[in-house]
Structure formats: C-alpha cells, structure tokens
Specification:
The complex is a heterotrimer of chains A (108), B (338) and C (275). Chain A is an alpha+beta fold and 108 residues long. Chain A is 15% helix and 19% strand. Chain A has a single domain (2-98), classed as Roll (Ubiquitin-like (UB roll)), CATH 3.10.20. In chain A, a hairpin with a 6-residue loop joins strand 1 (21-27) and strand 2. Chain C starts with 19 loop residues before the first helix and ends in a 6-residue tail after the last helix. The chains are: A alpha+beta (108), B mainly alpha (338), C mainly alpha (275). Chain C: One of its GO terms (biological process) is phenylacetate catabolic process.
Chain lengths: 108, 338, 275
C-alpha cells in the first residue's frame, strides 16, 4: 500500500471543525537538530507554531520549533521492516571500528 | 491505494488476502519485541487487544489530567499569595499540557482526539475517581499536590518504560514536569502545618480526606484486577497495583512525619517481617461508586467539561473556516502566479 | 529517577530573567510618587491576570487553555514586579498590596476589570489592552527609573507575544464565520467605552517627568495600529463614546469589588498568616 496521501492536498481537515494534527519538532539549542517532541492540534500552520511554543517549550526546552502536518509525513513501511533496513547491516566497513590496524596510531 | 492515516501513526489492516500471513509475521515480531523488552512503535503490527488496552489506558490517563484541572483551577482566583497563585496557575496549565501529551500518544494508535473527547463527554470513558472529590479548602491544594500527584508519580515512573514507545515518551516528559507538582503541594502543607492553629487544622483535615482516595488511585487490589496480569505480560504495567500502593505508603509515612501531620489510618504501622508498613482496609464500595459517576462532584465536573466544549464550538469552527479560506486564497494566488 | 539524556526535546532550564525576588532583594526603594505610578501598572496587570485565570479549563480547545494560561502567568509576573517595587516605598510586600487594600485603594483601569464574556469579548479586551501595553512598555524601557525600565524590558517581550496572540484570533474570528464576526464585533463594542481612559494623563503622571510615560502620547500609535488590524480582520472600529469617569479611582467601577471579594477572601480570613 502507498504511504503517500495525494488526496489530502491542504492538510486542513476537510469541512469539519476538527482541527488537524501537526507533528512538532524542537531544537533544544543552537547547533543541534530539531527532534520530534510530539503532536498537537491547530487550525493552521500559524497557530500550530504558536501552540507548539506554548505546549512544548514552557520550560525553555527550545530555541526553535518546526510544525509539519501529520498527513504530510511519509514513513518507511514497517511491514517490509526486515528488508528495508537489512542492507545497512553487515556493512561493517562503513564504521571506523572496522579498521583495526591503525590502533595506537594517534589522531587517526 | 491511499490512506488518511498520517505517516507517523497507526496503520489499519491492509488487503484481507494477505491478512493471515501479515498477522502471523506481525505476532511473531511483536512477541520478539516484548520478549526483548524493546519498544513497540505506532506503525508496528500489534494485537488488537494490545491496541485497545492502550487506547483505553492512555486516554483515561489523558481525561484524568483534563478533569483534574478543575479542582485546582477552582482555587486559582482565591490563592492566598501571588506566589502561590502563579505556582498553581503554572501547575494547572501543566495538567492541560500533560493531557495533550497523552492524547497525542493515544492518537498514534489510530483514534483521533475528538473521538476520545466525545467518549469523555458522553460519559463512556472513565477518569481517575479522585477528581470527583471536592477541593474545599486551600489545604486541599497541598494534599492534592503531595498525595494525589505523589500517587500519580509513583504510578507513572514505571510507565516511562512502558512497551508502547509514544506512551513511554509522554510519561518521561510528564514525570520530569511533575517533579515540581508534588513538592509544591508538600510545601503548601508544610507552611500550613507550621502556621497558625487554624492553618494546621486545615492541613490535617485535607490530609484526612485525601489519604484514602489517594491510595485507591492505584486501582483495586490485585485479586480484583483481572486486566493487570495481561498489561504486565505486555510490559505496559511493570508493577502490580498492590506493589505500587505499598511503595507509596512506605514513602509517605516519613513525609507525613516531616510535615508534623498524621495519616488517618489506625492500622498504619511498621511490619518488621515484611519490611513494609501495614495499612488498614480501604473502602472499595466507595471507590466503585465514585469511579462510576456517583462521586460528590462527578456531575459538576462533567457539566463543566461539556460546557467548555459547547461554548468553544463557534471558535473552533471560525478558526477552521479561516484556515480553509486562506488556504484557498493561497492556492488561487499560486495558480495566478503560475 | 533518571531519564534518557539523548532526548534533547525535553531538556529544561529555568532561564535567567528578572524575578519579583530580585526586585525585593535588590533593595532599591521606590520614591513615593514612583510607587503610586507603579500601582497603576501593577494593578492593571493583576486584574487582567485574575480575569484570564478563569479561562483555564474553560477555553475553546486545550491548546488555548495553555495559551491563555501563559498570558495570565506573564501578567501575574508583571504585577508581582510592579507591586513589589511599589511596596518598597511603604515597607509593604506584594501580598500586602494585593490582598489588604480595599476597593478604593486600587488603581486599575476599568478595561481590565470587565467581565470575560464569551471568547470574542475576551479577545477584544486582549487586543485593546495588549496593543496599549505594547506602546506603553516600548517607551517605559527608557524610564529614568532603572527598576521600572528593567521591568518594562522584561514585560515588553512578553506583551509582544500577547499582541500577536490577540491579533491572530482577531483575524480568525473576524474572517471566520458570520457568527464569530458578530460575536467579536459585539465584544469590541462592549469594551470600547473603556478605551479612552487608558490614555488619560493625570497630575501624578505629569509630575513624574521622564520616569513615567504620558498616556496621551500613546494614543496616535495605538489608534493607527488598531485600525490596521481591525481593517485586516474586516471589523469596524467601534464608534462609541468613552464611559464617564476614567481616573482609576474605582469610584465608577462595579466590577472591582467582585474581583477583590474573590481574590482576597482567604488571605483576609487569616491576617498575618504565611502561605
């Protein structure tokens, strides 16, 4: 099945008065990435940013927030979990610890 | 095939033909995750009963936070000092936040918040019975912080390791924030107990009223709690109701001594053999009545929640209408631009 | 109790901003006339915080409970700064001033004492007051009184946010549905008679020179900016006469007594007690 949501153009929750769901990402300090903090409901992006600030940074947890309509997130398919991340396994030569000859040599 | 379900959230059953095979592989994967004490994430396959149990537990927990705002919110306007007013306001605000973290976790299981909220408003969902008791005096703000939040924290700390990832993460955030809640409650009682005789009497009275109900917050005794066993097998619950209750009693005895207040339980005494405090029987008939909507304030709590929801309807509609209009305007502006 | 340290989205800190305790322990004693001016500012903030606090657990959506609580907490903080500083002139604490003054001793304006009404009425009051406060604090940061300037600097950043919150809602209610437009326009009409007095100069303020900000000097900017946002929201600036009696004396306010009766009841049952 497709992970895309091509029929949800606006991400604005259709005609109902229910506010759509937004995913919130918080940057805790300069130099770090935004990390997923949780979600909230807001009528639009402008209010979502403000609600995110009020909800997820009441104790100085962040210097910046991102909000993304939950519907806009495309995720890897958990059903193919086995195969999907398999390829990254067994390639130990991608990791520095694979190279042992240089042990004891400084700054390497 | 497209789905309304957001990418980070639960995926409903797929094509029925592949269902059996998917369920078998899913169950195997799920069992392995639980056996390894790893975490289940929203888009993983999970048994329907596991999903249902979690939706029920997490949403009840969220409802408790939201209804729990009322007994304390009731005192914001009358707090006896500006410092206490600020603390109480911040605390009740935190409870709204905790409710939101938990609804957010519950939504990842595929049930939208407005559905969960409707269950609460219709009286189909339960919430912690303690919030159906009145908060009559200022000392109740102390007793609620110390005993009610104390019991909640004792319950919640192990839930930080709950097998369902979003629930555990919400609990981590909540536990971090709640550490101030219990302390400020204890401090309120400390000030009262070291104040005038009238203040001390107020403190003792509040402790007398909240002691029993706070012990009942851990749920029925283990032998009457049939669902607990399954929750423990799924690594949602880590300790039984009675274990947590005992742990809580052992903690508060000393804390009460430091407050110079007594706990209203003639059977409370140290048991050398068990290495724990014994405590007297709790009134489970009262508990059952209060949790099922017959508490002293059950009707007013629900009425207040419904009223807020109804009064807010036109505001929510206005904001949604504005969002649709501006989105449509933006779309047509882009078309013209193209 | 230990928590995952890699979860950087939950790292907390208390921050380092001015607190009421700093002002109390800082030891600068307000001159008596400055203290009387600080009461104007503190009482306005306190009354509005008290009014907004009512919304917590009653807002249209949970996210909005939190937003209104944030604003109420900010205002309560401002009140504590100003009242603590005012109290230094007379050897009184913030609580002496908040809980043990009678109605006629308060100096709040009538706008902040008005009832919340529905969400539209509350937002109308928020819009008027946050726009007024913004113009005030923007100038008060240059007060020749260093404590007032420091409080204004802290408060200004928060009021900017209150202004934004009110503006966002004015747009949504003004342009949302027919009902929301009607309700928020009614709210503006209800509050508008109490706009004039915000800009009323009196002898005390005139005598304070560059310690204070002349309220009349804020009016032009306020009018221009309010007209802009209401125009954008498709709402009318109400054509309503100012209500008689705008001298902060409380002589022409019915609301103040109700607010104080509730706010002070417990503290007055136990005079001299600590909490």
């Amino acid at each position: 099945m497709s992970e895309n949501n091509e029929n949800n153009v606006t991400g604005l929750g259709g005609s109902s008065a229910e506010w759509p769901l937004w995913e919130v990402f918080v940057r805790s300090s300069r130099g770090l990435s935004h990390v997923h903090a949780g979600s909230l409901h807001a009528p639009d992006a402008t209010m979502a940013v403000r609600n995110a600030r009020d909800l997820y940074t009441r104790r100085n947890e962040g210097t910046s927030v991102w909000v993304v309509p939950s519907e806009a997130v495309t995720a890897s398919d958990p059903d193919s979990k086995g195969g999907y991340f398999e390829s990254a396994q067994g390639k130990s030569y991608r990791h520095a610890t694979y190279y042992t000859k240089s042990e004891g040599v400084k700054h390497l | 095939m497209t789905t309304q379900t957001p990418g980070l959230h639960a995926v409903p059953a797929a094509d029925p033909a592949a269902q059996a095979e998917q369920d078998r592989a899913g169950q195997e994967h799920f069992d392995r995750i639980i056996a390894e004490d790893s975490r289940v994430e929203p888009r993983d396959w999970m048994p329907e009963a596991y999903r249902k149990t979690l939706v029920r537990q997490v949403s009840q927990h969220a409802h408790s936070e939201i209804i729990g705002m009322q007994p304390e919110g009731n005192w914001i306007s009358r707090a006896p000092s500006l410092k206490r007013k600020a603390i109480l306001m911040a605390k009740v605000q935190d409870e709204a936040g905790h409710g939101l973290y938990l609804y957010s976790a519950a939504e990842t299981l595929g049930t939208p918040r407005h559905v969960l909220n409707q269950q609460l408003l219709d009286g189909r969902a339960k919430y912690s019975s303690i919030f159906n008791y009145p908060a009559r005096t200022w000392a109740d703000m102390g007793a609620i912080g110390w005993l009610v939040d104390g019991a909640a924290i004792a319950n919640q700390v192990p839930l930080c390791r709950a097998s369902y990832g979003p629930y555990g993460r919400a609990m981590v955030r909540i536990c971090k924030e709640e550490s101030f809640h219990q302390r400020q409650g204890w401090e309120i009682l400390y000030e009262l107990s070291h104040g005038t005789p009238a203040q001390k009497q107020m403190a003792q009275d509040a402790v007398n009223r909240f002691y029993g109900p706070s012990l009942q917050m851990f749920g029925p005794p283990d032998e009457d709690s049939p669902n607990s066993k399954q929750s423990m097998a799924w690594n949602i619950k880590r300790f039984s109701n009675d274990e947590l209750r005992q742990r809580f009693v052992d903690m508060i005895v000393e804390q009460a001594e430091a407050l110079d207040l007594t706990l209203p339980d003639p059977d409370l005494k140290w048991n050398e053999d068990r290495g724990h405090y014994d405590y007297g029987p709790l009134d489970w008939d009262e508990f059952k009545a209060v949790v099922s909507g017959k508490g002293p304030c059950s009707v007013q709590r629900m009425q207040r929640r419904r009223q807020a929801h109804e009064d807010g309807a036109w505001v929510r509609e206005a904001a949604a209408a504005y969002a649709r209009k501006t989105a449509a305007e933006r779309a047509s502006a882009e078309l013209i631009g193209a | 109790m230990s928590f995952a340290s890699h979860d950087s989205a939950t790292k907390q800190s208390a921050g380092n901003a001015i607190t009421a305790e700093d002002i109390r322990e800082g030891g600068s004693k307000a001159p008596e006339d400055v203290a009387r001016y600080a009461l104007y500012l503190g009482d306005d903030a306190l009354m509005l915080a008290q009014r907004l606090g009512w919304w917590i657990a009653r807002a249209p959506e949970l996210e909005e409970d939190i937003a209104l609580a944030n604003i109420a907490l900010d205002l309560l903080g401002h009140a504590r700064f100003f009242l603590t500083y005012a109290g230094s002139a007379w050897g009184k604490t913030e609580d002496d001033l908040a809980y043990f003054r009678d109605e006629e001793e308060f100096r709040s304006c009538r706008l902040v004492e008005q009832e919340n009404g529905d969400f539209g009425q509350t937002i109308a009051r928020q819009l008027i007051f946050s726009f007024y406060q913004y113009e005030l604090y923007r100038r008060l940061v240059r007060s020749s009184d260093p404590t007032l300037a420091a409080i204004a600097e802290k408060a200004l950043k928060e009021v900017e946010y209150h202004q934004d919150h009110a503006s966002q809602w004015i747009l949504r209610l003004g342009l949302g549905t027919e009902e929301s437009k009607r309700r928020v326009q009614d709210g503006l009409h209800y509050m508008w008679p109490y706009v004039d007095e915000l800009f009323h100069d009196d002898e005390l303020i005139e005598s304070l020179g560059d310690v204070a900000v002349l309220p009349s000097s804020l009016r032009a900017d306020f009018d221009r900016r309010i007209a802009e946002i209401l125009d954008e929201a498709g709402l009318d600036v109400p054509d309503v006469a100012g209500a008689y009696g705008g001298d902060r004396s409380g002589e022409f306010s019915e609301q103040r007594g109700h607010i104080l009766a509730e706010m002070q009841v417990l503290a007055r049952q136990h005079p001299g007690a600590t909490w």
